[in-house]
C-alpha cells in the first residue's frame, strides 16, 4: 500500500495572496499543520507558530527538520543521509571487510523523523483537552535518529571504552 493512500492533498501557491488566504482558512479549521519547509520559510511568510495559534489556539504545529534549529546547521536543509551521518549512526552501520553501502531511508527519515514527530503530535493532540491550547512540536532528524538508535550507540561506546574505564553500578 502506498504511503500516501487515503490522504487528501491540497496544492497552494504560498507566494500568492490567494494561496496564503487559503492556508489561513485551513489553519483556522485544522488540528495539525506539518511545516514541510526548511527552517524559517513559513515564519518569513508570516506563518509563525504564534500567528497560527492566534488564528486557532488548539492547532498543533509540527516542524520536522534535519538538524537542530539552534545548531550551526540549523537553517540548512536536512536529508536522511546527512542526518544519519551527523547523528553518528551512519558509522555504526559500517561492515568490516565490505564496501560501504547506502542505507535505505528508514532510520533518519522514517524513524528518527517521521515516527518521532507523529508520536509527539499525538501527545500534543491529547494535551489540549487538559491544557486548552495546542502546541509546537519541534523534531530534528539528527537527535531523533540518535534517540531511536540509543541501544546501538551505548553498546558502541561501551566497546570503545572497554578496558579504559570500569563502570561501577550500585553501592
TrEMBL record:
Q: Which residues form a coiled coil?
A: none
Top-level taxonomic group: Eukaryota
Database matches in InterPro entries: CoA-transferase_III, CoA-Trfase_fam_III, CoA-Trfase_III_dom_1_sf
Kindly give the Pfam families that the UniProt entry links to this protein.
Answer: CoA_transf_3
Q: Which GO terms describe its molecular function?
A: catalytic activity
Question: Which residues are the signal sequence here?
Answer: none
| Similarity comment text for this entry | Belongs to the CoA-transferase III family.
Q: Which PANTHER family match?
A: ALPHA-METHYLACYL-COA RACEMASE, SUCCINYL-COA--D-CITRAMALATE COA-TRANSFERASE
Q: What is this protein called?
A: CoA-transferase family III
Species per Swiss-Prot/TrEMBL record: Allomyces macrogynus (strain ATCC 38327)
